[in-house]
Amino acid sequence: MQANTKQTEHKRNIFLKKIFGSQNFGDLIFERLTLLFAVFVFLLVILMGYEMYIGSKISIEKFGWSFLTNSVWDPVQEIYGALPIIYGTVVSSFLALILSVPLSIGIAIFLSELSPGWLEKPLSFLVELLAGIPSVVYGLWGIFVLVPWIRNDVEPFLSERLGFLPFFRGAPYGFGMLAAVLILSIMVLPIVASISRDILKSVPQSQREAALALGATRWQSTKIVLKDARSGIFGATMLGLGRAVGETMAVTMVIGNRALISPSLFDPAYTMASVIANEFSEATSDMYLSALIQLALVLFVITIFINAFAKLLVWSMERKLGTR
Amino acid sequence: MNPSKFFHIKRKVTSVIMMSLSLVATLIALVPLVFIFYYTISKGISYLNIDFFIAMPKPVGETGGGMANAIAGTLLLIGIGGVIGIPVGVMTGTYLSEFGNNKFGSVVRFLTDVLSGVPSIVVGVVAYTLVVIPMKHFSALAGGIALGILMIPTITRTTEEMIKLVPHSLREAGLALGIPKWKTTILIVLKTAWKGIATGILLGLSRAAGETAPLLFTALGNRFWSTKVGQPIASLSVYIYDYAKAPFEDWNQQAWTAALVLMLMISILSLTFRIVTRSKYKTK
Question: By CB distance 3.0 to 4.6 Å, which of A175, A189, B28, B189 could disulfide with A256?
């Protein structure tokens, strides 16, 4: 009996081997099963782009490229031009990066080059904590703390001292580009700082030792480390840019939400993400909905490019240093 | 003064100044953190009572009430998200670490990175076109699917990294005993890496709990108690958004309390994350 079952099992194995090759049957199932999920993730990203393309088809057909260059966003007249929105997105993200990248690099230098071990861990934890606060809580804080502060202190001060510049003119509403830039720079900071810190730490210790042995000061050895890490830090900055471009809730809550191209930072503005958040549920016509989905598609494509570029930079950096 | 000495002092001074600046940068970064925590706790605590957890929101104009429905809604939404995100993330991570040393593996790895950078609002739009339009109404399912998609990259990456930490000798020991590879992977490799994978899952869940943008036009919101998957559902994060914009002071107050409760939920999740990872790295 025993021998019999063994024999049939053997026969079955030979049969399965004939079909599936020499692999173990269970291994094959397992590999194919995990592969299935990996394929799912692959298809998901493609499906996302496809769904948005289909959803925005009528808008794409009607407006074509003028969607990106027309500066009138008027849902009542059914005219959708995203230029002021793209302007708001680009300006808010870049200004936020200008504020936060130097700070982030400073933090990264402090954490990787200067701080003693016992201080580094809790400080890194605090910086990461900043990244863990939900966007909507930033927005809540923005509405009730940051915006009043900007309205009562920052904007009057700026218009008094620097009012001769076109950037600091107009009525101090509080809600506007300036508030969005400040809140975005706070939100981008932990990402750029923590990735830059990892990158600085991946520069071999021997680089620092060599510099110090030649009599370099701390700052001089840090400059050498920064030079080695520059493409990685640039990658970290791009990841921060990706986050800033797509940031939704906090920006929507403080930017004032008006499709306006104005040089003044005091004026309200609009970003792609905040338009979608604000207007999607009230989009009544098909064309309106389609235009909003097209905006999401544009945002999707932009963030994919930014992230892919950033990832390549960080990868090439890691490969160069041989940590991978 | 001797010029070389002057140069020496100048170098030293520059170094001290630049390094102090890096300390200043770190301190500046901590200011908003302190402020946000201070305001959330001090403003949120005044409403924090049992009612907040068990009572329903009051109609417009009445003060008081709680957010029991929103707390249940957030839990249900991240539950639905987890049902999608956890298996997909863990299996894809397993594929990438065990079988992913090929072109397709690199492509998938790259796409998970790309997916992690896609703004959450875009994922909300996709969930809208995928689920809300065919169903013809907003639903917890649509919101949960959006959150699930957002969890996938985090869980996939952590699973892959954690499996890679498992020493190769363990795998070889299993294979040497004649155990098939799939059993070795599940019973030895995944079991060893389980703690790390669990932390990745918790991280994914805690991030999803704070998401607002993808829920605005998928789960929408609901002023009544609902645990139906096919119906619109309330969530803490959307409540914070709505109540923060509302012109009623009482609602603004409740928004702070909701923020405090949400942050507490997230902290509990990520604290578990930190504790578990710490013990993980100690044994390493």
Answer: A175
A123 within some domain: yes
List the 127-186 stretch of A: residues with Cβ below 8 A of B: 127, 129-130, 132-141, 143-145, 186
Range with the lowest mean pLDDT among A14-18, A245-249, A301-305?
Answer: A14-18
Do B163 and B179 sit in the same domain of this protein? yes
Compare CB distances from B181 to A24, A103, A306 and report the shortest one's residue: A24
Token reading at A291? 């235009």
Confidence tier at A4 by pLDDT (50, 70, 90): low
Residue of chain A with shortest Cα separation from B274: A125
Interface check for A5 against chain B (CB to CB < 8 A): the answer is no
Establish if A68 belongs to a structural domain. no
List, for residues B49-73, the tens digit of each pLDDT value: 888 888 888 887 777 788 899 999 9
**Residue A217: helix, strand or coil by DSSP?**
coil
Residues of chain B with C-beta less than 8 angstroms from the C-beta of A44: 115, 149, 152
Q: Which of residues 79-118 of A touch B (CB under 8 A)?
A: 102-107, 109-111, 113-114
Asked, for residue A35, whether it belongs to a domain, the answer is yes
The residue in chain B having the minimum alpha-carbon distance to the alpha carbon of residue A219 is: B15
**Per-residue pLDDT reduced to its tens digit, B201-244:** 998 999 999 999 999 999 888 888 888 888 999 999 999 999 99
User: Which among A44, A34, A29 is positioned nearest to B96, based on CA atoms?
Assistant: A34
Longest CA–CA span in chain A (Å) reads: 99
B211 within 8 A of B150, measured Cβ to Cβ: yes
* Global confidence as pTM: 0.90
Q: A118 and A49 in one domain? A: no
Write out the residue range of the structural domain in which residue A171 sits.
83-321
How far apart are the CA of B158 and the nearest CA of chain A, in angstroms?
A: 15
Residue A140 lies in a domain: yes
Coil, helix or strand for B96? helix
- Give the domain extent around B37: 3-46
* Count of structural domains within chain A: 2
- Residue A6 identity: K
Domain count, chain B: 2
How far apart, in Å, do the first and last CA atoms of chain A sit? Answer: 55
Residues of A in contact with B15 (CB under 8 A): 217-220
CA–CA separation, B262 and A253 (whole Å): 18
Query: Tokens 């909701």 belong to which residue?
Result: B258
User: Predicted confidence band at B79 (pLDDT cuts at 50, 70, 90)?
Assistant: very high
Cβ–Cβ of B29/A247 closer than 8 Å?
Answer: no
B141 and B42 part of one domain? no
Helix or strand or coil: residue B264? helix
How many Å apart are CA A266 and CA A31, to the nearest integer? 57
- Which DSSP category does B215 fall into? G
Render pLDDT for A155-177 as a digit per residue (tens, 0 to 9): 999 988 888 888 888 888 899 99
> Could you tell me if B106 and B212 lie in one domain?
yes
Q: Is the complex ipTM higher than 0.85?
A: yes
Q: Is residue A319's pLDDT more than 80?
A: no
Rounded distance between C-alpha atoms, residue B18 and residue B8, angstroms: 16
How far apart CA A201 and CA A164 sit, in angstroms, is 44
Handedness of CA A217, A218, A222, A225 (dihedral sign): positive
Claim to verify: residue B118 and residue B245 sit in the same structural domain: yes
Residues from chain A contacting residue B207 (CB–CB below 8 Å): 132
